[in-house]
Amino acid sequence: MNKKLSKPPIPLLSRRWARVGLIVLFTLSAISNLYAQDEQVNKSQFPQNLNSELRRNTWSIYAEGGLSWATDVWYQSFNAKRSYNQSPAVGGGIDFTIRPWVRVGVEYLWSRYRREQRFSSLNTQKMPVKVYGNYMMNFHNAKLGVQFNFMELWPHRRAQWFNAWMGTGIGYSFIKGNEYGMFFNNTMTQDGRTTPIGNNLIVNNESELSLTGNVRTTNQHEKFNKLFIPTVLHFEADVSRRFTIGLKGEMDWLLSRGGIAPKNYIFGLATIRYNFVSSRAKKLQTYYEGELSVLNDEVNEVQKETARYRDRADSEASERQRLEQLNADLQQRLLDSENSKSEGKAAIEISHYVQFVNNSASISKDELSHLKHFAAYMRGHQLSVIAEASTPGTTRYNQKLSERRLKHVIKALLKEGFVKENLHPQIAIGEQDGKPDETGRRVTIKLVK
């Protein structure tokens, strides 16, 4: 049975594989650009599973597994199994994400590369004849790396759960294995001479031949350690706040090969990452606790302001009540004074008023001069002083204005030699008489006795 393929498999690093790889890379880049559309900056920022929230001064660990390839291995394969072209690879690492666009970390990877020699035809011209060979090397890769997230070129991208990292670093590879070989050594002894059997004879896998002789095997151990420079392209998607899955491609360039090490290692890996971040519930709890604290502070401030306004209103109400009571008492006293005048006696009223301009409590020079003359004439007598305000303006303002006018007149009389006991009663009635013109902008001084 002829098991030879009509078309050989595509070599791993051929141009056709390169075209396939470029198509996949451009497709992923197009998808990345599609998901990197800008979002509205003025959109309400409710606490969400954001990229900056998961990848800012955070730690993560990850496991990875897949396949590996080694290129330019010195041990050539002949009619080898297809499975020898690639090997399983497993590992893991720890990363620290400084900002959403950069992270650093350490990583470990284990894999191996194998080569096999299955000779379909044997050359018996020279003994011993190699009929089978196997070369297998296990390698352990440890590296320090830095990666950059080029998806962060879009500052307000919508799909922050999708990220694409590119990186490099420095690594060290520990490689150890063995080379196994099986050899036939057929000889013939005749007339005391020992010669190889099969001179000028070709033996292939379609021939039937019985051979006698020696079978020898060798198993040679090999090991070496090499520095390498890694290049990484890693696509990741967040499936939750704490778990991220991804696809990773890596090529390691070995330095100082020395003729025995491969040129590079190639990896195709799937990754799963655990992010050490707070849970969604805890994040929301922290957010709402902050919002409630702010609202409580605002409520307390409003309550304090309300209490201040309430105290001020109570104080003004009390003062208004006191002034109303005082005004009522003075009105009654005036009425009693008028009723006590003796009947039949002509009432001679001596009085003087100080005129003020509108919305003013200042005494003009002329009015002050008249007041001094009146004071000089009435010094030693008891006088009543009543201050008024005209009706324009609010009642409260007019009351205060009349009080200021009363105060200035009393001060002027005291300077002219009057004592407080002789200036009684002192009344500020505001706009109570309802005078709208200049007759309501006066302070009236009357002789009591």
TrEMBL record:
InterPro entries for this protein: OMP/PagP_B-barrel, OmpA-like_sf
UniProt keyword Coiled coil present: yes
UniProt xrefs under SUPFAM superfamilies: OmpA-like (SSF103088), OMPA-like (SSF56925)
Alphabetized UniProt keyword annotations: Coiled coil
Coiled coil: 292-340
Protein's name in the database: Outer membrane protein OmpA-like peptidoglycan-associated protein
Species for this entry: Hoylesella shahii DSM 15611 = JCM 12083
